[in-house]
Amino acid sequence: MNQTDVLIAGAGPTGLTLACDLARRGVSARVIDKSPTDFPGSRAKGLMPRTLEVFDDLGVVGEVLASSGPFPPFRGYAGETVLWDRTIYQMAGFPELTPTPDLPYTTFRMIPQWRTEEILRARLVALGGRVERGTELTALNQDGEGVTASLVRDGRVEEVRCRYLVGADGGPSFVRKAIGIGFAGTTDATDRSIIADVIASGPDRDHWHTWTNPGNPANRVSLCPLPGTDFFQFVAPVTTDDVPALTLESLQAIFDQRSGVSGVRLSDLRWATMYRVNVRLADRFRMGRVFLAGDAAHVHSPAGGQGLNTGVQDAYNLGWKLGAVLRGAPETLLDSYEAERLPVAAHVLGMTSALHKRWANGGTPRSAADDVYQLRLSYQGGPLARDNGGGRVRAGDRAPDAPCRDAAGNLVRLFDAFRGPHFTLLAFERHDGRYGEPVRAYTVLHPGEPIGGPCLVDADGLVRSGYGVESGFVLVRPDGYIGLIAPDEAAVREYLALVMGGPAM
Q1: How many domains does the chain have?
Q2: Are residues 49 and 123 in the same domain?
Q3: What are the pLDDT digits (tens) for 209-262?
Q4: How many CA atoms lie within 13 A of 132 on its CB side?
Q5: Half-sphere exposure of residue 484, counting CA atoms within 13 Å on the CB side?
Q6: How far apart are CA 492 and CA 498, in angstroms?
Q7: What global pTM score does this model have?
Q8: N or C: which end of the chain has fewer CB within 10 A?
Q9: Keyword Oxidoreductase, does the record have it (predicted)?
Q10: Average pLDDT taken over every residue of the chain
Q11: H-type helices in 127-201, by residue range?
C-alpha cells in the first residue's frame, strides 16, 4: 500500500495553496483531483490584499501581480448611452485603502481563477510536487493512526495510507459527506446567474461594462475584461424559470435583449456555468484525521469576492499546523484549525449574504472594508493567542509589516523576515537567542545601537510604533499572525513548549 503524510482531495486554489505550503516544509503530500483537465474558467477573479500577502510568503506574488490588474471602473449604460462611471470602491461602498508602512498590498487584484491555479501549480512543481488529474477519491476509512483512502484512476483502484486527509473538494465535497459532517444552510434555486468567458467585439477593455434596468435590477448583463487575456467575463442573472442553454447563441440573445446594443458580437466561448447562490457552513472542520477547507467547509454569495480568498486563508492556517504535528508537535495543535477558522467562515457567510441582498436590490452596501480586505481578521481570544502585554496590536492579530534595515544596512521589511515556514521572534531587548529550530529570532535595535547577532534596525521607528511596544517580545506564527506578546523570554519558551511540544528551554 502506498503511503504519504497528507492526501489532499481537490486541486483548486485551496488545495494548491495547502500543497505548496506543505511542500516547502518537506511534508510528503499527494494532491488529487477527479477532473481530467485543469479548470478553464475565470470564476473567482478577485484577490484581496491579505491573499496577496499569503502569496508573497509562498513565493508567487510576483507572477500574480504580473498576470493581474486593478479592478477596472464600472461603466453603466442605458443602451448606447453612458449613464455613470464608478470605481469598484464606490460600487462596494467603502473607501480605497491608503498605503501605509504596515500594508504592502492595498488594492484588489483581478486575475482569472484558471491563471491563479496555473501559477500555484507551477510553484508546486518547483517545490517537487504535482497534481494527479483524473484521480477520484471513492472511499476513506480512518483509525487512530491514519486514513486509508481508495483512489480510482482509469478504472484502476489504488489503496493509499496517509497520516491526514484534507477535503478541498468543493461544495459537493465527497470527503465531507463520507465522514458525515452536516452542511447546514440554504440554496436559493431562484437566485441564479450565467457566468461565462467570451471574446466580445466592440467594448473597450478599460471598463467593467454593465447594462441595467432601474425598474428591474435583476434584468442586467455585464462584460468585465479579464487581465492578461482577450476575454471578458459575461454575467447575467437568470430571471425566469426557463434555464437558458449555455451556448454562445443563447448568451448573444441575452446580451442583445438586455443591453439594447446591436454592435457587440460575442465569440470564442471558453467556459460557462450556471451559478446558484448557496449559503452553507459545515458543522465541523475536523473529524479525527480528516479536515475540510475552502468550499468543502463553507459556501456563500459571491458578493465581496470572499470565496477563493477565504479558502486560501483556511489552507494557510492548516498548513503550518500539519507540518508542525508531523515533526512532533502535539496533536492538539490541530484542534486550533477549527477553533480559529470556523468562526471566521461563519462571519464571512453573514457579511456576504448581507452584501448580496443589498446589491441584488440595487442598493449601496454599508462599509464592510475591514471584512472584505481580510486584513483585520483576528484570532484574538483563540487557543493560540497569548497576550501578556501588547499595545497597538494584540495576540491573534495579523502581524504588521514595517520597513527597517538589516545588519548590513540594507533596506528590508519585516515581511522579509517572516517569509518562510518558521516562527519569527521580534525581541525588543537583548536575549540569548536559543529557541530551537522552528524560530528565527531578531533583536529590534534603535539606530546607533551596537550590531550583534541577527537583528533588524528600526531606522524610522516604524516597527515599534506599528506594534505599540518598546520592550519585550512578539512571537509571529508561520502564518503571519501574532501568537504571543510577552515581557520576558520565559514566556516565549513556555509558549513554544505548549504549541510545538517538548520542555520549555
Answers
A1: 2
A2: yes
A3: 999 987 777 789 999 999 999 999 999 999 777 788 999 999 999 999 999 999
A4: 15
A5: 22
A6: 10
A7: 0.95
A8: N
A9: yes
A10: 92
A11: 174-178
State whether 438 and 486 are in the same domain. yes
How many other CB atoms are there within 10 angstroms of residue 338's CB atom?
20
d(Cα 54, Cα 273) in Å, to the nearest integer? 29
Cβ distance 388 to 473 under 8 Å? no
* Residue 379: how many other CB atoms lie within 10 Å: 25
The count of other CB atoms within 10 Å of the CB of residue 496 is 23
Encode pLDDT of 207-223 as tens digits. 999 999 877 777 899 99
Contact 109, 52 (CB under 8 A): yes
- Last residue of one domain, picked from the residues 318, 342, 373: 373
Closest to 194 measured CA to CA, from 270, 272, 257, 250: 272
Identify residue 353 by its one-letter amino acid code.
Answer: S
Contact 13, 299 (CB under 8 A): no
Distance in angstroms (rounded) separating the CA atoms of residues 79 and 59: 45
Query: How many angstroms separate the Cα of 98 from the Cα of each of 43, 49, 95, 317, 379?
Result: 28, 12, 9, 27, 24
The mean pLDDT value for 406-415 works out to 97
How far the first Cα of the chain sits from its last, in Å, is 40
Chain position carrying cell 484525521: 289
Q: Taking residues 459-487, what's their average pLDDT?
A: 96
Confidence at 93, pLDDT banded by 50, 70, 90: confident
Q: By three-state DSSP, how is residue 296 classified?
A: helix
Q: Report, as an integer, the average pLDDT of 465-475.
A: 95
Q: For cell 501568537, what's the residue? A: 483
Sequence-distant contacts of 38-41: CB under 8 A, at least 24 apart: 38/114, 38/117, 38/118, 38/121, 38/133, 39/12, 39/113, 39/114, 39/117, 40/114, 40/197, 40/270, 40/271, 41/112, 41/113, 41/114, 41/195, 41/197, 41/270, 41/271, 41/273
What is the spatial distance between Cα 467 and Cα 253, in angstroms, rounded to a whole number?
Answer: 56
Rounded distance between C-alpha atoms, residue 22 and residue 127, angstroms: 10
Host H or E run for residue 191: strand 183-201
Q: Residue 485's domain spans which residues?
A: 386-500
pLDDT band at 364 (very low <50, low <70, confident <90, very high): very low
Q: Which of 156, 181, 172, 145 is nearest to 9 (CA)?
A: 172
Same domain, 425 and 328: no
Q: How far apart, in whole angstroms, are the C-alpha atoms of residue 129 and residue 132?
A: 10
